[in-house]
Amino acid sequence: MTSEYLWYIPNEVRAGHRGDDVVDGHNSLGTLTAQARAIETHGWGGALLGAGWGRPDTFTVAAALAACTTTFRPLIAVRPGYWHPAHFAAAAATLDHLSGGRVLVNIVSGTDDLAAYGDDETDRARRYARTKEFLQLVRQLWTRERVTFRGEHFQITDSTLALRGEGRHPRLYFGGASEAAERVAATDADVQLFWGEPLDGVRERIERLRELGGRLGRALPPLEFGLRVTTLVRDTTEQAWAEAEARVARMGAAGFARDANWDLAAGQGRLQELARRGDVLDENLYTAPARVGGSGAGTTWLVGSAADVARSLRRYRELGVTHFVLSDTPYRPEIERQGRQLLPLLRD
Known about the structure:
The chain is of the alpha/beta class. It has helices at 29-41, 58-67, 85-98, 124-143, 179-188, 199-216, 237-254, 266-274, 306-319, 331-341, 343-347, and strands spanning 4-9, 46-49, 73-78, 104-107, 147-150, 155-159, 171-175, 191-194, 224-234, 280-281, 285-286, 301-305, 321-327. The chain contains 11 helices and 13 strands. The strands form 2 sheets. It has an 8-stranded parallel beta barrel, surrounded by 6 helices. Strands 5-6 form a two-stranded antiparallel ribbon.
């Protein structure tokens, strides 16, 4: 099965995200376009764009970068409480048409600064029920004419999009580790994204999601799986571990603050628990960042030479993971380093 390798663009108002280089105009169109073009040049398929109320609007950034590139595929994070599904379906279908089918979508249901943009759905069960309706309605609008939908959270009548993807539509990625999230992924997502968990945890989740999809009557093609993780690659194993340990020491000394929203997420809780099992799992999955404030993809790192990290990623691939979203800081130089050193080993 063909694997997909994406990078990450933080899309932050403040410079220095997770130790990135602090440069003038770090989030200008010129700088972001240079990153996207470097991603194209060095063999990556595209990039996940950072999302959240405190960041520039992700869809707008994705549209600008799609217009400035030729093969770059933006993985656009979308919150059902931020978008109405009909509005989003129309916007995404339009951008997918204009970009020649390059749009990917990552549905996010975790907590955010909900009240800031008028969302008041704080109950997890109801939030995931709304996400399920969002996924179903967006997919129907992309694939059918004259859609009428009567759900608990969304209702539309006799709706047809002006552009419906010309026989194609964006893939729908989804994350979440709670029971409610897994039930949504098992039936209505195209790709389930995992954080950087050990192999045994990923194997267990893949088996559970496949079984759950069968039990719940999944009607879509089989669910695919992805991994979002930091990859700290250096020329030698020793250099990589020296840098990883020094970086964790700097994070601890700086008193990095963890985002309070992450503490509420089931997936983040799983990652923090890993640090109690040991600083290093599966040979080179480094969990120590969790102890000093790491969150999201910055909580666990795959550390080593390109050969070490490629070997680890191939083990995830053997479990059934075929979509990889990798990154390290400083982001721009690492696009080139890992594109040159790591990607060829993964494609051999």
